[in-house]
Amino acid sequence: MAQNPDARGASHDLSVQLGPLRLKNPVMVASGTFGYGEEYADFLDLTALGAVVVKGISLAPRPGNPPPRLVETPAGMINAIGLENVGVDAFLQSKLPYLRDRQVPVIVNIFGNLLEEYAELAARLEGVPGIVALEINISCPNVKSGGMIFGTEPSMAARVVEAVRRATTLPLITKLTPNVTHIGEIAKAAVGAGSDMLSCINTVAAMAVDIFSRRPKLANVFGGLSGPAIKPIALRCTYEVLQAVDCPVIGIGGIANATDALEFLLLGARAVQVGTANFVHPAVTREIIEGMRRFLEVERLGGVEEYIGSLNRECLFPFAEIACEMTDLP
Amino acid sequence: MQKFLEEGRVLEQQEVARQTHRLRLEAPRMAGAARAGQFFMLQVREGMDPLLRRPFSFHRILPEEGIVEVLYRVVGKGTWWLSRCAPGTPLSLLGPLGNGFELPPIAAGPVVVVAGGIGIAPLQELIQQLLAKGGVGRPADIHLFYGARTGAEQLPENLLEDLGISVYRSTDDGSLGYGGFVTDLLRRVVQEKNLQPSQLYACGPLAMQYHVARWALEHKVPSQLSLESLMACGIGACLGCALPAAQADASSQDHYLHVCKDGPIFGAESIQWHKIQTHGAPPTIFLYS
User: Among this protein's residues, is A247 annotated catalytic?
Assistant: First the structure.
């Protein structure tokens, strides 16, 4: 006779402790894929999300790159938006209140061309109700100065994090780029400089060309690859980062369903961010949260915390596909 | 206006002109909510390749029958898969999106509609709306200028001339109607007939839109041009569908409009036409198997 998974009194608790933050579940949305939240309100209850990471904000508004800005690739897309955003003033005045009024935890992704700009932004966001953390963007591949330049050299990464650390008491997440030789070194530098948490990965530097027009498909020539195509890269990076540092890590890269999300948690990531999949299925995060809950039920786990970091590195289970069918996950 | 997801179903696919397919979709909620000139994002296939939804304008909106129609040309991976969807195939729709056409006020006078190739797609529904409720005294006061590379690629007379509207056809190869660009035909006819259009609507390839926009600005005719772009989301999140916005003065910094949330219908005056870059014309041979 089948046992009721609830027989043990398990509540299938999805809440996680992420450094100083308590999240109702580990599912966030990634910066640049969810606007300022309101864009998705027709499709899902925003309060169901662990947190919303808003589109990267700079001190002054940025127009972004000339089009074409994106191109589709197998199981992915390359974008070169160029951090188009409304600037911090308009963000605080006209964008943040929507999420704050609905009590959605907001993480603000911040970006600057200079160290001083990062610091000034952080200072401006200090003490603003509704903001629970800052995510320092040192990993955008699509801008000429700042961005990824800060994220590919450990000492530069440390200087940005230090500058932001001095300017704010908010919890800090540093978002790492995969476009480096040793991501663990950058991770160590960021944590050493005061980053409470890390998120990885940002997009993978990429390119596409058109054989007829004989031109690059992006006006910016290079862009950042995202989507299911990069998930294995993201898993490898997350694993390396978790081995290098001892702080909470948020897994990002190609997550499109609950199985993908659970893979990052299995490695030890304490939360995930869903990005490109939001474009295709605006309610995908709801399905991921529901799928995680179902997984806990089937696996008879009281809470997701029990599952995080439970990877068994020694043994390769030969019947993984059968197990997947049994849990009815995609 | 609320946007939503709807699971639609393919009812019928038909090749109505060369390389031009008409897809009938059962999607009652979408059919009840959509307006002419709006668009929706269609997932042409489950799975990860192609990954993104494709934007399509509404070719026909039939609320009573619960049907929306799409007119499309096979130009890439997405439309190739779409063309292989048999009746009964479920497809996910996300919409309705964008601003849509504004119909002229009652008795505003003749309107000019310019279509280039597959650009006829959203204009068919517009013409239906103009006939049904809007602004034009007689059907013949709707002047449709319709160009394509060759006659075989144009929609047949029963879909256009038979509505009683004034249709002027042109083809690049001279196989049907005026031989030459549709914008040249537009200039000629408007001059010969001394037309005083109250409104101009257009959809077509960028080069055509550019000339239509110039014509509208020269003649001070209010214009509504349906523009397109690659886009990932359709709902204002990815910011991929940027078009360079017209500027107040030459010294100001470039900034961008977005086809999905500011359009897809734009006035000729709102775009910096010469700064638009595209991936180029669709390939003449199609390398996908």
Answer: no
Q: Is the pLDDT of residue A250 over 50?
A: yes
Domain boundaries, chain A: 5-327
| Structural domain harbouring B265 | 228-277
- What mean pLDDT do residues A101-119 have? 94
pLDDT per position as a tens digit, B191-220 = 999 999 999 999 999 889 999 999 999 999
User: In chain A, which residues have their Cβ closer than 8 Å to the Cβ of B242?
Assistant: 64-67, 69, 84
Nearest to B53 among A33, A213, A280 (CB): A280
**Whether domain A5-327 has CATH 3.90.1150.10:** no
CATH number at residue B62: 2.40.30.10
**What is the rounded CA–CA span in Å between residue A85 and residue A12?**
38
Q: Same domain, yes or no, for B74 and B11?
A: yes
- Are B51 and A70 a contacting pair at CB < 8 A? no
> Whole-angstrom Cα distance, residue A174 to residue A200?
8
* CATH number of residue B146's parent domain: 3.40.50.80
The residue among A103, A85, A89 whose CA lies nearest residue A36 is: A85
ipTM above 0.95 for this complex: no
Q: Does B44 map to a domain?
A: yes
A269 touches B at CB < 8 Å: no
* B228 vs A159: CA distance, rounded Å: 43
